[in-house]
Specification:
Elements: H1 2-16, E1 19-24, H2 31-40, E2 46-54, E3 57-64, E4 69-72, E5 78-82, H3 96-105, E6 111-116, E7 121-125, E8 130-133, E9 139-143
Antiparallel strand pairs: 1-2, 2-3, 3-4, 4-5, 5-6, 6-7, 7-8, 8-9
Protein name: PepSY-like domain-containing protein
Length: about 140
């Protein structure tokens, strides 16, 4: 019983340091993330970088001057790009099959959000339509 009491008293202290979100400078971004931003957003300045630490994994959210948010996972890969429902994402950030599908079937529309999940990729078009693709970029369905 004494051990349980000690554990219950120490548990909040032990777990308090497991999660941390911190605004950091652009210099704190790893090289791979910087290279991605330089390649796909060459003339857009970074306005804010937030580093998330959780369970020995570090991820980054980067906000650009043009209001686009880019999320990087713990492996330095892009996990999502959000144009805040209005900003067009550069064609270069989209997998070719997805870009071709949108250009063929949704003429006049453009992608304002892209997210890679465990089993699929999801995009949102400027008109609000959400489309789901598999990890290879093949169309799966329209998301309601």
């Amino acid at each position: 019983m004494k051990n349980l009491t000690i554990y219950l008293l120490l548990a909040p202290v032990l777990f308090a340091g497991c999660e941390e979100d911190k605004v950091v400078g652009e210099a704190a971004l790893p090289a791979a993330e910087k290279q991605y931003l330089d390649t796909h957003f060459p003339n857009v300045a970074i306005s804010r970088v937030v580093r998330h630490r959780n369970d020995n994994m570090t991820t980054y959210d980067v906000w650009l001057q043009n209001r686009i948010e880019v999320e990087f996972d713990a492996h330095g890969r892009v996990a999502g790009i959000d144009g805040q429902a209005t900003e067009r994402l550069p064609d270069s950030v989209l997998p070719t099959p997805i870009l071709e599908y949108v250009n063929t079937r949704y003429e006049g529309q453009y992608v304002v959000e892209w997210e890679r999940e465990r089993n699929d990729q999801e995009i949102r078009l400027f008109n609000g339509t959400e489309l789901v693709f598999d990890l290879n970029g093949a169309f799966v369905r329209i998301d309601d």
